[in-house]
């Protein structure tokens, strides 16, 4: 483990940290700053040192929520987060969310895979508990009651504090709530793709279920793979890599319309377009904390600032209209 991520014994956050606003994750006891730092780039496009710099900045400006998965960079993301937690000695100040179900060594949601995946994540994260454990996608081959029953045993053992679902269908969430009424663990949060450019997957049946069940919604790709940051507006500016391909699909008439609306609102507030895009998400019912990654420490400030930007009704209407 130490060969992958250097372990540094230091504590750079001994002073008080001012958190401008906190929110509850569903019906759990977890309270977090309403911006989750996504760790999907850790171990992929960012090495350990650069990832630690981003994490340092996130903590320094009051962030306390980190979102990762055992499948991100085949576990390297968790290794980097775990190294940072240990070296900065800030585990108790942070809320850690991770996902299981897609790691090649522990695929799916069978009881044995779940138990092995959680223990592996705990080892990589260098912690004794996972605050919020997501089931990373549905597993049609495993009855949901078996999956939730196994999660229940982990919660009884103190290894998992709360359970969420990533990319579950509305029908599966309704099934989970019926099982919870019969004594199995209750899903309290959902992770789903949702942003100004990609609204249809959430708005509709999934949104109705989230509202009816009081689920905390943690959108991922809140900036549409970086497009809503506004730094790429022409195809000639697109990077020739996997992230560039994802971003490029948003270029076009509708994308230009959304960026123009973001520019107008951002100018009025003296804010960054990315800040406005995330503030739009936070204005939606049940959204508690978008999960967004940053490539540099400087980018973190614009992300965290979304929690302090209450958009007006006219702002929201304009952004809704532009992205319709």
Automatic annotation (TrEMBL):
InterPro entries reported for this sequence: AKR_Detox_Biosynth, NAD(P)_OxRdtase_dom_sf, NADP_OxRdtase_dom
Cellular component annotations (GO), alphabetically ordered: cytosol
PANTHER family registered for this protein in UniProt: NADH-SPECIFIC METHYLGLYOXAL REDUCTASE-RELATED, OXIDOREDUCTASE-RELATED
Pfam families: Aldo_ket_red
Domain called NADP-dependent oxidoreductase: residue spans: 34-322
Gene3D superfamilies attached to this UniProt entry: NADP-dependent oxidoreductase domain
SUPFAM superfamilies (alphabetical): NAD(P)-linked oxidoreductase
Name by which UniProt lists this protein: Aldo/keto reductase
Top-level taxon of origin: Bacteria
């Amino acid at each position: 483990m130490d060969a992958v991520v250097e372990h540094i014994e230091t504590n750079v956050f001994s002073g008080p940290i001012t958190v401008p606003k906190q929110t509850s994750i569903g019906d759990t006891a977890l309270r977090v700053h309403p911006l989750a730092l996504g760790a999907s780039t850790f171990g992929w496009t960012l090495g350990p040192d650069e990832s630690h710099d981003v994490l340092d900045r996130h903590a320094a400006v009051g962030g306390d929520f980190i979102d990762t998965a055992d499948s991100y960079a085949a576990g390297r993301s968790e290794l980097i987060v775990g190294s940072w937690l240990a070296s900065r000695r800030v585990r108790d100040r942070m809320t850690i969310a991770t996902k299981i179900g897609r790691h090649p060594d522990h695929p799916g949601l069978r009881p044995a895979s779940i138990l092995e995946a959680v223990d592996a994540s705990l080892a990589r994260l260098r912690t004794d508990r996972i605050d919020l454990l997501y089931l990373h996608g549905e597993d049609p081959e495993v009855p949901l009651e078996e999956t939730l029953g196994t999660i229940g045993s982990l919660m009884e053992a103190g290894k998992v504090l709360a359970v969420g679902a990533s990319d579950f269908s509305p029908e599966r969430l309704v099934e989970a709530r019926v099982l919870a009424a019969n004594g199995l663990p209750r899903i309290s949060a959902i992770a789903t793709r949702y942003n100004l450019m990609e609204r249809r997957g959430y708005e509709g049946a999934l949104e109705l279920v989230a509202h009816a069940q009081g689920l905390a919604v943690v959108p991922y790709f809140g900036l549409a793979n970086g497009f809503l940051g506004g730094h790429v507006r022409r195809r000639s500016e697109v990077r020739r890599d996997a992230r560039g391909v994802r971003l490029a699909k948003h270029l076009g008439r509708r994308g230009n319309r959304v960026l123009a609306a973001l520019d107008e609102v951002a100018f009025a507030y003296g804010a960054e377009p990315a800040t406005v895009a995330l503030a739009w998400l936070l204005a939606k019912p049940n959204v508690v904390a978008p999960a967004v990654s940053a490539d540099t420490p400087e980018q973190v400030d614009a992300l965290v600032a979304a929690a302090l930007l209450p958009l007006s009704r006219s702002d929201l209407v304009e952004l809704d209209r532009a992205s319709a």
